[in-house]
Amino acid sequence: MTFLEALKRVLVGRPFETESLKRTPLRRLVALGKVSSNALSSVAYAPDEILLTLAIAGMSAIHFSPLVGAAVMVVMFVIIASYRQSVKAYPGGGGDYIIASTNLGPRAGTTAAAALLIDFVLTVAVSMSAAAHYLVAALPQLQGHRGEIAAWGVALLAFASLRGLGRSRWAQMLPTYLFVAGVLFMLVVGSILAVTGQLGQAPSADFTIAPQAGFEEGLTGFFGALLILRAFSTGSAALTGIEAPQSSVPDMAPPRAKNAASVLVWLGILAAVLTLGTLFLAEATNMRLVEFPHESLQLDGGPIPEGYFQIPVLGQLAMAVFGSGTFGFIAILVLTIWVLWTAGASAFKSFPFLASLLAVDGYLPRQLRTRGDRLGYSNGIAALGIAAIVLVLAFDAHLPGLIQMYVVGVFVAFTLSQLGMLGHWKRRYVQTPSRPARAKIVRSRLLNLVGFVLSAAVLVVVLITKFVHGAWLAVAAIGLLYLIMFSLHRHYEAVDRELAIDPNAEAKALPARVHALILVSSVRKPVLRALAFARASRPSKLDAIVVDTEEERTQRTIEKWNELRIPVPLTVLASPYREVAPPLLDYIKGIKRDSPRDLVVVYVPEYVVGRWWEQLVHNQTALRIKARLHFEPGVVVASVPWQLSADTHGRALFDNDFGTTPPTDPSKDPQ
Amino acid sequence: MTFLEALKRVLVGRPFETESLKRTPLRRLVALGKVSSNALSSVAYAPDEILLTLAIAGMSAIHFSPLVGAAVMVVMFVIIASYRQSVKAYPGGGGDYIIASTNLGPRAGTTAAAALLIDFVLTVAVSMSAAAHYLVAALPQLQGHRGEIAAWGVALLAFASLRGLGRSRWAQMLPTYLFVAGVLFMLVVGSILAVTGQLGQAPSADFTIAPQAGFEEGLTGFFGALLILRAFSTGSAALTGIEAPQSSVPDMAPPRAKNAASVLVWLGILAAVLTLGTLFLAEATNMRLVEFPHESLQLDGGPIPEGYFQIPVLGQLAMAVFGSGTFGFIAILVLTIWVLWTAGASAFKSFPFLASLLAVDGYLPRQLRTRGDRLGYSNGIAALGIAAIVLVLAFDAHLPGLIQMYVVGVFVAFTLSQLGMLGHWKRRYVQTPSRPARAKIVRSRLLNLVGFVLSAAVLVVVLITKFVHGAWLAVAAIGLLYLIMFSLHRHYEAVDRELAIDPNAEAKALPARVHALILVSSVRKPVLRALAFARASRPSKLDAIVVDTEEERTQRTIEKWNELRIPVPLTVLASPYREVAPPLLDYIKGIKRDSPRDLVVVYVPEYVVGRWWEQLVHNQTALRIKARLHFEPGVVVASVPWQLSADTHGRALFDNDFGTTPPTDPSKDPQ
């Protein structure tokens, strides 16, 4: 115990007081930096996904990428507009889970929560996989270890969260703003170079893309349209994280709702500029990105070089704009990894927080509701870490696979949240008599309706175009989580019902009589202590019990008992099969049969030794009996421990025997 | 629990009653068959060891084998003669451990016991390794798997012992007598053939033995003499098991001591006839046996065939006498394997029995003293099985390696036992006044003195000639076991001293006052039950405690408490670090400081759920608190369980709440 505790102290640090949770409210600029790392870090992988999906149809298709990006951004602004409604409607805070469950009932709420939980796991998995990708781009000698690097990244994140690292606002704000500044600077420089015709080519510009079977003609016909939809739905990964400002409304400085709404707008503007700018420059530098480079890329009609490693979009852009190995290139990679780490860290806050809300509501195990030593919800952090590591290793940090699941979760939550807002406005409309107020509600409702239709449409598109590519896994995971959460809730409710108190019937009732039993194995001090305690509690009846497992030993016990003239009758229970628990249970059942109103209390004398090997070499009978009695209805087990000091000091350290006068503090002694 | 119990029933069978241990006394012939399997089965490997040790010095040396065998037999008869003294001196039974500890004190006794325990492990390891060797001789396709076969043999033996198989007298007697009859028949037939000049050659007769470096001249000089001593000490493996009749004296029919003494003589005669006969026939059939055939054997000056497998002595004899593959050959192999199995099974009785004696005396963990369901000492059986499997696998069932350890253990026990008898006679001499009786004692003492000198001499020879060959391992094992046993004994003694009752001081003392605490986490039925029980025991002071880990929850608890008007004060303990146990322990320490004579009783309400996953999803706080309080001196923990039926039947199954009238048997209802 003490060794484990010491280890925990070294790893986790000394505990923080609950008081230190209280913090000053967030001003707008701080809030923007703090909550947008998740949404903005998707610039590090969402453009890549659009490009490589379009590349399935070959060289001509990739020129559609800015168009697809623009469509994604349109959807984003609609959703942001509807989230501004939610923020104003729930200024006390409330994520998609609360909005959905308040307005649509627990089933929708649980579904939204399940989707969000899956989402947070994927935020971590995707962020760390992308970070591993950028790290390998910076340090080519790490090639071939992306899965492990990403898994270690997750483990490090979990550890940092357990220690409560990165809780300061600067740690959350700085990487976001630096990343935005760095990428913006690159986009501006790149655009100037492009306009002046001085922009270099991307390192992959010389390759040609071989279209996959069925797309030899480029993006034409039904399948061409479907592929554009697929690219659009994959690119929707850029929208992950825009729900974050909504749940941090309570932390904002007043006017909370207004500040949160403006944070949302600024978040959208930054995301749009970065995403579209990146796609534009990728097009300008003739970047070629495919899912499997060695299968789909060609160089002068032949295969590409053996060791070719496909650097992600921001990395290739930095090479084209600043040149490979320059300070600018390294800076972009470092900032990208840092913002991805921060996005992962934010999920390590959101997941345990949502899990604790769900645990309080009885949808997840109770263990998730308690804060650990450093104020993080330790169990939730551990659960998230394990789930993300499993995902990262299962997909070997391959982003296109993970993204498919990600988008499903995000849009399930969006859709349910918007639907919830529709319900909210409907109720508000009914409750509101004044006409101008009603008109405002109608406008808000219309906005949420558009948001709902659009996000539902995207969800349908995602499910249609990517079901077999991995979306089914997300659907299955959400469904499974939903089932688990619902069964748990039913179980907790049943327990609560059973344990609830009926004030009239039972509040002050007392058991009729107490029948006390003392379990005797050998007549030594612990037995006397148990006896003394049992007699002090004045039971209606008091029996000492010895189970006859060994004739000789039983005989010795009886003799000793009589010799000491202990004024309590000693009952010997026969045990033909040398067991202790069954004869005792039979005896107790007999008592309960004869006098059903009696409460049976079994006093178990135990001695406690200090070291683990000492514990091993003493009979574990007491432990086993306690375990068996635990499941016996109407039986109270009183364990009377005797703390041994034998072997350690040669004499009793804790001499608390009742007969002797206990040591008193000499300074308090009146003598 | 129930699944494990069912599994145990299927594997082990239903329990036997303790009563069935009582058995009718053994008559002489039955006793001889029952106790001599261990000693006589050594004919299956001891001659081999003599032959292959001598073979180190080449062809000429192996002719010394009958001489070495005869020397071993002389030692055996001396030791048997001295054991006859022990049997008469201890007609109540008493193995080497009891004789050594009674007469020489606990240190010698513990050493003898350690040696014997190591011995029994080696009996099993050697018997199963030899059996595996014979099995491979019978089924050549098993070659190369001797280690695994022997390990499986040990496992099967352990399993059979746990099930209590082979407890009938026939199962112990039959294989011994059949083995003796079979080998005797072979020896007689072989001798007749030899005398008439019709005896065939052993399958290894055509080989020549290349002497090892230093022995090119055969058995000459100092090293020659040393090698003969080595062969002698290795051959002393034939003496293992002759101590067995001594410990079964109490089972004999009267006159016990006399019967046991005559069993010893007959055992010696049979062992001598079989061992010497085997060595004689091996010589007559020109058998060549070496430790590593492919290194030391030659055929016509060149290497022996690639796949040559060295069949052990009894197998080669059966081939020479009856012919390979004949019924006689197969019968000898089968009987040999059977008697080796029986010898192993006997060790699975002796080891756990000795271990239980040692456990009763406090030299081994208490768990070894209890009989299992089928009356075997299950823990001892398991310990022996594991130790023997480790040995067999470590030596890959290579007999020459194992035998070295075996002999050391046997002779340490012999020597200490004889020394103990010397002490015994000395005391008897002093106590005996009459001259003729004294003369008898002097004679007995002389016999034991010879026995002591001879076995000590053999021990010294063994240690000198084989220390580096493996004897050191036995010495180390005995030493280690001795240390463990002594530390354990010291520990148990210290515990006993500490727990012993001083009848004058404390037998009937009662604690001054009882201060009861009830741990409240939420105000539900279990708390009310704990409260009812605590009040029923009428403590001097009663407090309800709530630890404030979550402000909101604590507030709810307080409100509910007041609402129900529970007439017990509710104390709220602050917990800045959200822990439950530390504030509680601080509070208890405060009570103990203020009124040191008070007994503190903590009532812990608990609810017990039925299924493992239900157990997982409920807070384990109660368990953790109980574990912490267990180590706190002067605190009694009363666990008040509430058996939940939630989820299983939708309503309480065990409705034992005190307020409602419990269900009564309608047949007993007077209405």
Automatic annotation (TrEMBL), chains A, B:
Keywords: Membrane, Transmembrane, Transmembrane helix. InterPro entries: AA/rel_permease1, APC_K+_Transporter. The keyword Hydrolase does not apply. Coiled coil: none annotated. It is found in: Membrane. Gene3D superfamilies: Amino acid/polyamine transporter I. This is APC family permease.
